[in-house]
Amino acid sequence: MSTHTSEHHHGTAILKEIAVDYCPEVCLHSPEDDEIHITFDHRCGARWRSHHRFQYGTFGGRIKCPAGNTSGLNFNIYLSSLEGDKSQDEIDFEFLGKDKLSVQTNIYTVGCGNREQIHPLGFDYSDDFHEYLIKWGPQTIEWLVDGKLIRKEERKPDQAWPEKPMFLYSSVWDASYIDEGRWTGNYVGCDAPYVCSYRDVRVPVENIILMEDEK
Q1: 25 labelled catalytic
Q2: Catalytic residue among 7, 17, 90, 154
Q3: β-bridge pairing 73-80 and 90-96
Q4: With 50 as the cut, is the pLDDT of residue 1 above it?
Q5: Chain centroid offset of residue 28 CA
Q6: Residue 18 near residue 169 (C-beta atoms within 8 A)
Q7: What's phi and psi for 55, nearest 5 deg?
Q8: Residue 5 to residue 74: CA distance in whole angstroms
């Protein structure tokens, strides 16, 4: 079982309310237990997000990815200024269904990514809950797994940097059509339904940014 790394939780609180962008019937949120579950089956998956945007801070939670043959699927936890916006800022953890032993990280600024890195985990991400955290600041970004730093980016002069206020998102979806299945694998679905579970999802409550339409 993963180690509970409370030293990284300063300034955060458990996310008690979420919005579900699509297929709410396959997304179960239990605020009493601080758990969220997304099921991927014949109805497809779902995407949830925080109600508000934030600017900087620590984000993440404990995640148990789906078991079985998950080839073709993408499950994730990430920050984005607005999903679907072609000029979004974004910071990602993405689990690629073809490989249960690694995780991908990425950064987008004004819609431009191509800063992917693959990180061996040393465990099967579907075996148990593990903590995945993003620590986002104006000069550094860190990705941590069970309290261990796996990637750190430091801002360089004149470098594009994610600065827009961002929601915390998570989804489960079939990404097998991307690059003819080379990214996440070809979808098989022999072990559906697939359930991705989240516990103790945290956000930096002191860093909420209210946009004009939220005031």
Answers
A1: no
A2: 90
A3: antiparallel
A4: no
A5: 17
A6: no
A7: -125, 105
A8: 26
In 3D space, the residue among 96, 65, 116 whose CA is nearest the CA of residue 187 turns out to be 96
Dist. CA 52–CA 18, nearest whole Å: 9
CA atoms within 13 A on the CB side of 103: 27
Whose tokens are 């945007």? That residue is 53
The CA-to-CA distance between both ends of the chain, in Å, stands at 42
For this structure, is 32 an active site residue? no
From the candidates 25, 94, 142, 214, give the one annotated as an active-site residue. 94
pLDDT digits (tens, 9 = 90+) for 56-105: 999 999 999 999 999 999 999 999 999 988 899 999 999 999 999 999 99
pTM of the model: 0.94
- AA identity, residue 117: Q
The pLDDT, as a whole number, for residue 2 is 40
Q: Write the CB contacts of 111 (distance below 8 Å, at least 6 apart in sequence).
A: 85, 86, 87, 88
Report CA Rg, the chain.
Answer: 16
User: Would strands 140-145 and 148-154 be described as parallel, antiparallel, or unpaired?
Assistant: antiparallel
User: Tokens representing 177?
Assistant: 């059509």
Distance CA 136, CA 138 (A): 7
- Structure-token pair, residue 202: 């945290």
3-state SS class at 2: coil
